[in-house]
Structures are given as C-alpha cells and as structure tokens.
Amino acid sequence: MTFSQTAHDSFSRKILVFAHTGRDDARRAARLACTQLYGAGLSPVMERSDLESLLEGWQEPVPVEVMRESVALNEVELGVVLGGDGSILRAAEMIRHTEIPLVGVNLGHVGFLAESEESDLEETVSRIVQSDYEVEERMALDVQVWHGRKKIAATWALNEASVEKGNRAKMIEVAIDVDARPISTFGCDGVVMATPTGSTAYSFSGGGPIVWPEVEAMLIVPLAAHALFSRPLVTAPSSTIAVEISAEYGQNAVLWCDGRRNQEIPAGSRIEVSKSSKPVRLARIHPVPFAERLVAKFELPTEGWRGPIRRTDTTALPQITKDINE
User: Fold this and answer.
1) What digits encode the pLDDT tens for the residues 180-191?
2) Its pTM surpasses 0.70
3) Is 25 a catalytic residue?
4) Rounded CA gap, 204 and 116, in Å?
C-alpha cells in the first residue's frame, strides 16, 4: 500500500488531518486518527509531505488521500489539527480562503486554541464521525502596510499583528492612532495589536488583558514602552488602529502576524489593522465556559470559592417593596 492509494469511493466525507510531523507523539496521534476515521467510513486526507513522514514506521497504514492531488480543499468537511496552537495557526493559514472549520487536539503546552487533549482523541474522532460538533467563528484581523501612498503589504492574523524593532540594540519610535485620531507617541520594543483570541497569547505576555472570545474588540499593547502612558487599550471592532514608524530616527521595524509571517517595514511606514470580514471557524466538541478553560489552562487557584448562594427566603420581599414605594 502506498501513500497515493485512494480511499474507497463510498467515503464521501473527507477529513483533513494536520500534524506536527516532526514530533513522535503527533505522528502517533495522526496515524491513530486516520485509522479511526477510515474505520468509521470517512476518508482521511493529508498533505503529501505530512503523509510521507507519517508512512515511515507505520506498521498497518490505511488509505489516505492526498490534498490537491486526489482531493480539492472545497471537498473537505473539517480539519483536525494534532499539535499545539502553532499547528492550529499553520492550519488556519493553509485554509484561509475556505470555509473549513478546524478542531484542535492539544499536544503542546497551554493550547488555548485546541478543543481537546490527546487523551480525548478517540472521543473527538467519534464526535466527528457523528457530526456532533458546533462551529464558532473567531474574529480575525486585516493588516495593511503603507509607505507614503503605496501599499507595500497586506496580510491577516487570527491572534495578533505585532510591530517590533528590527535592531535589537535600539528602540523604535512609534505613534499610535485610533480611527485616524492620535493617541500617543513613544519609544518601545514594539506594539501588539490583538484579537480576543490572541489576548491569551503574545498580548498576554506583554501585559495585556484577557478578553473573553465572545467579545468583539481589538487590543493595543505596547511592549517595553519608554513612556509614562503605555497602558493597553481596547477598541471597538469597528475601529481602525494604526502604528506609524517614525522616519526621523531611520529605524526599520518588523511586522509579525501570528508569529509565523514576517516582513521588514521601512521607517516612515504606517501599519493599519481592522476587523476582517472573514472570521476563522473553529469546531467545538466540548463547549465549556471560557472561565473554566482559563482556570484549567493557567492552573489558576480557586480554593475558597463558594459560588452564588441559593436564596430561597422571600419573606422580606413585601416589606422591601413597601419601603421602596414610600
């Protein structure tokens, strides 16, 4: 059996499997996922390079279709990502122009974007087989870079777009504005512009607030700013936020999106960030309150918490009502 063998024609539901194939645990999980999907009558699909890596040492391989060779992206129902948040960001980048939802199985550390842990893989596959999952949409960012009247870059981000100094020995001088109104100027190591999804990532490390993913907003978090006012800011999703790199000092900057895509930005450039019209779709197998996920991922102490007290005594209500009326 070779990696190019096509799954049976009756396997009409195609599930794209992403894996961090440089890790043994990810390869094991991907083999198991493919085996379970195929055994349940679904067709697993992978990138050729990932599949070739997977076949090394796979004792009893099952037929796996090859993306863009035997299967087009628009035929895929769902993407299963085996790895950490970085793997999910890579998968989101690959399917950006599609409507494919992603479900993440965490093999990393914190894994805020992941839906399940490795120990839940079998249940996750079972839920996929039964189409027992919900799809939620996460806000993304459109990012444009202007130098004078010329647009020199256009990209997007799920977590954040960060503007950082290009020379480690020197700060960059920036001006921040919201909706074309100046907010402040200062020297700094950089500025992070994040979504609520990214509030637990780079933005959090820079001292920004944690924002519930149901909230639509954009965050501005200065990094190591040499300024009296350098507090994180939260803006409306309808706003456009911008960072201008001062031309006076001639310091170039680097734009990073989701820590994956980067581009050098010349001094004098303006980076504009706004809410994207196209969200990222995440499949949810275990919908739980974000507060619960937050406590679990950061191992926050909750000893002493009592919760709401159940109130059943209503004898004082008439007197209270009377006092209010008087």
Assistant:
1) 999 999 999 999
2) yes
3) no
4) 22
